[in-house]
Write a structure and sequence with these properties.
Chain lengths: 131, 134
C-alpha cells in the first residue's frame, strides 16, 4: 500500500486515442456529469417540497436558455451512458468484445443516444405546443 | 532499509502482503452492486425521462399533483435510491483510479459516500413531504 513507486492504471497518456478509447472515456465523463445531474434533481425535488415560490424559482432557472443548455447536456449524457451501459453489460456477459462488434455496437450507441436526445426534446417542445 | 518493497517481498509471506489491501470478495461485491444498480436504472431512467417530457412547463400545482400520485412517488424514491447508490459506487472507482495520494483519496471517498447519503436522504424526504404532507 505504501509503495508509491508501483505503476498505476489507467495509463491514458501512453495510448493513441482511438474510437474505442474515446467512447470508453466518454462513459466515465457522462457518469460524472450524471452525478451532477443527480444533485440538480435533488434541488428540484427539494424546491417543490419547499413550496410554490421556491419551485417557481427553480423552474425559471431551468427554463432559461442556460438551464435548457445544461438539461440538454444532461439528456445526452443519460442516453449515452445508458446505451453504452447496455454495451458494458453485454461485455460482462462475454458478448461483443471482438473488434468488429466493438466498432458496430459503438456506432449504434452514438447514433441511438443522439437520436433519443433529439427525439426527447422534440417531444418536450411538442408537449408545450412550441413546435 | 528493511521496509523497501524488495525486502518485503522476501521477508513477508504472500498472505501478509495482501492483508489490509481489501478482500477479493469486496471487489466482487462492488462490481455486482454496480451492475445490479445499472440494470435497475434502465427502466427507471426511461420512465423518468418520459415523465419529464410530459411535465415540461409544469407549474407548482401540476408537478405537485403528479409527484404525489402513489406510483410516481414510489418510482421517484426508487430512482433516487438506485441512482445515488450507483453514482457512489461509480465515483469510488473514478477516485481510486486517479487520486493516488492516500489522504486525498480518503477525503474524497468520504465526501462522495457521505454526500450521496445526504443528497439521497434529502431527495427522499422531499418526495415524502410532497406526497404525504401536501
Ligand atoms: C440508465 C442506466 C444506466 C446504466 C445501464 C449504467 C451502467 C453503468 C455501468 C455498466 C458502469 C460501469 C462502467 C465500468 O465498469 O467502467 C457505470 C458506471 C458509472 N455510472 Fe452508470 N449507468 C446508468 C445510469 C447512471 C446514472 C443515472 C448515473 C448518475 C446519476 C450513473 C453514474 C455512473 C458513474 C459515476 C459511473 C462510474 C464511471 C466509471 O467508472 O468510469 N450511471 N454505469
Amino acid at each position: 500500500m505504501r509503495d508509491n513507486t508501483r505503476p498505476l492504471s489507467p495509463h491514458l497518456q501512453v495510448y493513441r486515442p482511438q474510437i474505442t478509447s474515446i467512447l470508453s472515456i466518454l462513459h466515465r465523463m457522462t457518469g460524472v456529469t450524471l452525478a451532477l445531474a443527480a444533485l440538480l434533481l435533488t434541488y428540484w425535488l427539494a424546491s417543490a417540497a419547499y413550496g410554490p415560490e421556491a419551485f417557481g424559482r427553480a423552474q425559471v432557472l431551468l427554463e432559461s436558455w442556460f438551464g435548457r443548455l445544461v438539461l440538454f447536456g444532461f439528456t445526452f449524457s443519460l442516453f449515452y451512458h445508458m446505451c453504452n451501459g447496455i454495451r458494458h453489460l453485454g461485455w460482462d456477459m462475454l458478448w461483443g468484445f471482438d473488434m468488429p462488434r466493438l466498432r458496430i455496437t459503438g456506432a449504434i450507441v452514438v447514433i441511438t443516444s443522439l437520436s433519443l436526445t433529439v427525439l426527447s426534446w422534440l417531444m418536450a417542445y411538442g408537449h408545450v405546443g412550441k413546435l | 532499509m528493511i521496509n523497501t518493497p524488495q525486502q518485503k517481498r522476501v521477508l513477508q509471506s504472500k498472505l501478509g502482503r495482501v492483508r489490509g489491501l481489501g478482500s477479493t470478495r469486496e471487489g466482487v461485491h462492488h462490481w455486482w452492486a454496480q451492475r445490479m444498480s445499472a440494470v435497475a436504472l434502465l427502466p427507471l431512467s426511461l420512465w423518468f425521462v418520459y415523465s419529464l417530457i410530459t411535465l415540461t412547463g409544469s407549474d407548482y400545482g401540476t408537478f405537485h399533483a403528479w409527484a404525489s400520485e402513489f406510483g410516481n412517488s414510489v418510482f421517484l424514491v426508487l430512482l433516487v435510491v438506485t441512482m445515488f447508490h450507483h453514482t457512489q459506487l461509480g465515483l469510488q472507482v473514478v477516485i481510486e483510479d486517479y487520486v493516488h495520494s492516500e489522504i486525498w483519496k480518503m477525503g474524497m471517498l468520504l465526501l462522495v459516500k457521505y454526500g450521496s447519503v445526504l443528497f439521497a436522504a434529502s431527495a427522499i424526504f422531499a418526495v415524502l413531504k410532497i406526497s404525504i404532507a401536501g
